[in-house]
Design a protein that fits this description.
Blueprint lengths: L2 H4 L4 E5 L4 H13 L4 E5 L17 E4 L7 H9 L4 E4 L9 H7 L2 E3 L6 H17 L1 H9 L17 E5 L3 H14 L2 E5 L5 H7 L1 E3 L3 H7 L2 E4 L23 E5 L8 H10 L2 E6 L21 H8 L3 E3 L8 H21 L5 E2 L4
Parallel strand pairs: 1-2, 1-3, 3-4, 4-5, 6-7, 6-9, 7-8, 9-10, 10-11, 11-12
Antiparallel strand pairs: 5-13
Helix pairs in contact: 2-12, 3-4, 5-7
Bound molecules: nicotinamide-adenine-dinucleotide.
Organism: Coprinellus micaceus (Glistening ink-cap mushroom)
Pfam families: 2-Hacid_dh, 2-Hacid_dh_C
GO molecular function: D-lactate dehydrogenase (NAD+) activity; NAD binding
């Protein structure tokens, strides 16, 4: 038999929620691997209405805002989908129990570039604290006044990191080693060796971190236990004038409580790369759309809220790693039924 005839057909993968940068990196990774996959690039997010677009594909490839609940999974399964490759680390949008029940294998990219997010997070802290965003607009309009641009030094400040996984630890390291800030952290599963090496000190209770931090940065995943970890019950425990940063997941913050905290002045400034209902707006040009989420609109209206559209991961290095791991995950899943980055229902 010729080599041509023994080669198996490429796996058909429906890639939801794609932008050009996703397509370019996935195509490059697939080329480098000898084109084991055949992609259908779909701009729409996966949701109950768009699931049908997966017909004829053995796998789907998803990102953070695709909806993959049990109803969508049932439909995907009936269409013949057997593999889900997440192009991200977080998996709060996939019902893993339902996937396991249906025999659909789910894999993710656990670590594509924690540096990308950590570096962005530190940039966000600097932006919020030193008001780069306001200065940029002002100077472009020929206004060189410094009034209203007063910041404070990070040196010597207490910065609290909630969640010391890959990203939280790196963020803490930059702030401790680079700025000589007093970096403290809370994590129910501490990594004491790395924290010590990076100059990060654990506190025993979340309340200890909330009560002593000048800046609080969120780096835990969104799970039942962390949903609304920032709420009406935790904000009053923070120092008055605290700066809050969230580059993790929007659902960690109860936005109504955040708005109350901003209105009362308890929270001095906020940097957000994520929002709890971001999927209606993010990763799309919504500039000629009326924002019909009044909470989101209110949040955007604060002079002391700086927001980006889930951009922290977006570096060349991260996209390359995401694409390489995604291609490998899918190839391994089909060949062996498992892969190094498989997600189990209990995860
Ligand atoms: P990770 O799994 O390495 O670390 C998460 C850490 O959170 C773990 O150490 C865990 O023990 C800890 N944790 C769990 N429950 C906690 C709790 N109740 N309180 C405090 N800590 C708790 O994850 P990571 O790679 O560091 O990523 C962190 C999060 O960043 C991801 O879950 C994802 O949501 C987010 N993220 C955002 C972007 C972006 O572009 N904005 C990109 C990548 C990841």
């Amino acid at each position: 038999m010729s080599e041509e005839t023994t080669q198996s057909a490429p796996m058909k993968i429906a890639v939801f929620g794609t932008r050009k940068y996703d397509q370019d990196s996935l195509k490059a990774a697939n080329d480098a691997a000898g084109n084991p996959l055949e992609f259908t690039f779909i701009e729409a997010l996966l949701d109950p209405m768009t699931t049908i677009l997966a017909a004829g594909h053995i796998g789907v490839c998803l990102f953070v805002n695709d909806i993959c609940d049990s109803a969508v999974l049932e439909h995907l399964h009936s269409l013949g989908v057997r593999f889900i490759a997440l192009r991200c680390a977080g998996f709060n949008n996939v019902d893993l129990k339902a996937a396991a029940r249906l025999g659909i294998k789910v894999a993710r990219v656990p670590s594509y570039s924690p540096e990308a997010v950590a570096e962005f997070c530190v940039g966000m802290i600097m932006t919020v604290v030193r008001k780069y965003h306001k200065a940029y607009n002002r100077v472009r309009e020929g206004n060189f006044l410094l009034d209203g641009l007063l910041g404070f030094n990070l040196h010597g400040k207490t910065i609290g990191i909630i969640g010391t996984g890959k990203i939280g630890l790196l963020t803490g390291r930059i702030l401790s080693r680079g700025f000589n800030a007093n970096v403290i952290a809370y994590d129910p599963y501490p990594n004491r060796a790395a924290a010590e090496e990076y100059g990060i000190e654990y506190v025993e209770k979340l309340d200890d971190l909330l009560g002593t931090s000048d800046i609080i940065s969120l780096h835990c995943p969104l799970m039942e236990s962390t949903s609304y970890i920032i709420s009406d019950s935790t904000i009053p425990k923070m120092k008055k004038g605290v700066v809050l940063i969230n580059t993790s997941r929007g659902g960690l913050i109860d936005t109504y409580a955040l708005i109350r905290g901003l209105k009362s002045g308890h929270i001095a400034a906020v940097g957000l790369d994520v929002y709890e209902r971001e999927s209606s707006y993010f990763f799309a040009d919504s500039s000629s759309k009326v924002i019909d989420d009044d909470t989101f609109a209110r949040l955007l209206s604060f002079y002391n809220v700086f927001m980006t559209g889930h951009q922290a991961f977006l570096t060349t290095e991260a996209l390359t790693n995401i694409a390489d791991t995604t291609v490998l995950n899918l190839v391994d899943l089909q060949a062996t039924g498992t892969c190094a980055c498989i997600l189990e229902a209990s995860a």
